[in-house]
Amino acid sequence: MALDESAAFLRPRLSPDARHVAVEIDEDGPFDDLWVYDLVPGTRTRLTFDESNTDPIWTPDGKFITHTRGPGTQEDIVLRLADGTGELETLVSKESAQNPHSWSADGRWIAFYERANDAARDIWTLSLDGAREPQPFLRTPFNERSPSFSPDGRWIAYTSDESGEDQIYIQAYPSPGTKFTVSRTGGREPVWSRDGRELFFRNGGQVWAVAIEEGSPLDVREPKLLFEGPYDGGTGSRGSQTYDVAPDAQRFLMVKPDESPPTGRLIVVLNWVEELKRLVPTDT
Predict the structure, then answer these.
(1) Which domains does the chain have, with CATH numbers?
(2) Cα dist. 135→74, 131, 170, 175, 283 in Å?
(3) N or C: which end of the chain has fewer CB atoms below 10 A?
(4) For 195-226, what is each residue's pLDDT tens digit?
């Protein structure tokens, strides 16, 4: 399924009920803006009209959208109603760029990463309870980004270049402790399945899945290639999520570029299990 229009779509995110898509659109102006598509009637609502607005993510209840807002050198994390009404609320404001990436399932914590000039990227969390002071989760000489809460809130999956190339890791939360290497040949943009039993990630045009089994320690299986194609994203170092996974973990939201001009279509990949069987035949 594809939205019946072309635009310079960037970083699409599905609402928790999979009925809406929040997406960044580059309309050849000085800044990008955010829109929300209602997939049932096929209508869209513009959320932003000034400055640069990027990296939309939904709150777990689907009522609000969190995103980055600012001119580039300093970008705040803000919260606004998903229907475009009301005033925005600033959650994080620092003298550097902040990129929200995921909410904990209970809606109490948000994980984000900081881009401070030429310094390495670091992962932070913010509690909506109490004083709302950002807390560092991973601060190292390496680039850590794309932090994704597990559904049970006990783990954060993220991207790091500590090995010399980007790979996917899982680390215990809230106190960094037990750590697992997930990818083998490179990876970015980890996304958990709703039940926490799979972790998806990208490596260029490829989308991979890793089975996760609870235990002591966590049982992280070998990555399996699901599908690949000419989809946007998956190669940049910024760390923003350029695709999404439906609640049933059977459909994927991707941006597929047109040949010319540089615009794209939003694509929902259906029946990826059958595609996997075609790519990797198994004996029966």
Answers:
(1) 8-192+230-270 (2.120.10.30)
(2) 18, 11, 18, 11, 50
(3) C
(4) 999 999 999 999 999 999 987 778 999 999 99
Reported as a single tens digit per residue, the pLDDT across 74-94 is 789 999 999 989 999 999 998
Phi-psi region of 271 (alpha: psi -120 to 50; beta: other; left: phi over 0): left
Quick one: pLDDT at residue 94?
A: 84
| Averaged pLDDT score across all residues of the chain | 86
Sheet with 179-181, edge to edge strand ranges: 144-149, 155-160, 167-172, 179-181
Distance linking the first and last C-alpha atoms of the chain = 31
Q: Phi/psi of residue 6, each to 5°? A: -115, 145
Q: Which region holds residue 273: left if phi is over 0, alpha if psi is between -120 and 50, else beta?
A: alpha
pTM confidence score: 0.86
- Look up residue 251 and give its two tokens: 């459909």
